[in-house]
């Protein structure tokens, strides 16, 4: 028996081949897109003003869960964050986006929880270097905490898109900003469009500090989506 050739009835085939008049072979299955992880880091030490971090996490999770990207993004959390946790959770989850919620200090940067429950500052240079070491695959870092603008600038040397806050940010503003930002990202919009959507949400709700968030991005990076849904 000769080779089998798929074709239509009536085709002329030379070389002793046999025509199979059945259906053509099925097309190759399309590869399943890889899932990306959004890692939500948060800290609120016992003696600090208690922030509505649970509401912020819920808002982000809801926007992703009910979006077109629900099957492409996982949301993971790391609460009561300590200094030792930073390396561990980044290694474990390998996020495409890392989001910090909590307190920030004008000089000492973001603050986590010490073993004694008191606040501990994350040295800005050490945090910058950590993202340089473990930044492979990381598309964006969001520092949704007061006075994180300078820290965001430093991290931007190693991460394509970074969001920081120019000064103090109120709880309601932090939640509204996060809601709009992830609503855009989970719909396949670019980082720039998602940031503008979040800023517009602050204006719609007449927030007192809509100019506090700042997006810092490499050339062209802000115009790309976190998830390509085309």
Write up what this structure looks like.
Strand 7 and strand 8 (about 120) form a beta hairpin. The relative contact order is 0.14. It is built from six helices and eleven strands. A six-stranded mixed sheet has the order 4-3-5-9-10-11, with helices on both faces. A three-stranded antiparallel sheet has the order 6-7-8, with no helix packed on it. Strands 1-2 form a two-stranded parallel sheet. Residues about 1-10 have low confidence and may be disordered. The chain is of the alpha/beta class.
Shape: globular
For the secondary structure, the number of strands is 11
Strand content: 15-25%
Strand order of the largest sheet: 4-3-5-9-10-11
SS element count, helices: 6
Rg measurement, Å: 24 Å
* Amino- and carboxy-terminal Cα gap: 46 Å
Structural class: alpha/beta
Mean pLDDT: 89
User: What proportion of the residues is helical, as a percent range?
Assistant: 25-40%
> N-to-C SSE series?
EEEHEHEEEEHEHEHHE
* pLDDT < 50 stretches: 1-8
Report the biggest beta sheet as strand number plus sense, adding barrel if it closes.
6 strands, mixed
Salient structural properties:
alpha/beta, 3-stranded antiparallel sheet, 11 strands, single chain, 230 residues
Write a concise synopsis of the structure shown.
The chain has 230 residues and is α/β, with parallel strands linked by helices.
List the helices and strands and how they pair.
Layout: E1 4-6, E2 18-20, E3 36-42, H1 53-65, E4 73-78, H2 83-93, E5 97-101, E6 104-105, E7 109-113, E8 119-121, H3 124-133, E9 140-144, H4 149-155, E10 161-165, H5 171-185, H6 191-204, E11 213-217
Parallel strand pairs: 1-2, 3-4, 3-5, 5-9, 9-10
Antiparallel strand pairs: 6-7, 7-8, 10-11
């Amino acid at each position: 028996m000769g080779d089998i050739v798929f074709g239509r009835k009536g085709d002329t085939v030379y070389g002793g081949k046999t025509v199979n008049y059945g259906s053509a072979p099925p097309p190759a299955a399309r590869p399943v897109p890889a899932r990306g992880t959004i890692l939500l880091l948060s800290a609120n030490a016992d003696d600090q003003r208690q922030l509505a971090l649970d509401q912020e996490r819920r808002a982000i999770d809801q926007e992703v869960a009910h979006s077109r990207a629900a099957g492409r993004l996982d949301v993971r959390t790391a609460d009561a964050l300590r200094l030792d946790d930073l390396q561990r959770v980044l290694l474990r989850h390998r996020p495409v986006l890392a989001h910090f919620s909590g307190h920030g200090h004008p000089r000492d940067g973001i603050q986590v929880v010490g073993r004694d429950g008191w606040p501990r500052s994350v040295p800005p240079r050490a945090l910058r270097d950590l993202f340089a070491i473990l930044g492979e695959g990381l598309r964006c870092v969001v520092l949704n905490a007061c006075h994180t603008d300078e820290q965001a600038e430093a991290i931007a040397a190693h991460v394509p898109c970074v969001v920081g806050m120019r000064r103090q940010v109120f709880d309601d503003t932090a939640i509204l900003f996060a809601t709009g930002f992830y609503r855009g990202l989970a719909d396949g919009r670019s980082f720039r469009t998602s940031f503008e959507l979040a800023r517009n949400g602050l204006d719609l709700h007449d927030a007192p500090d809509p100019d506090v968030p700042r997006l810092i991005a490499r050339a062209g990076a802000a115009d790309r989506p976190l998830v390509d849904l085309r």
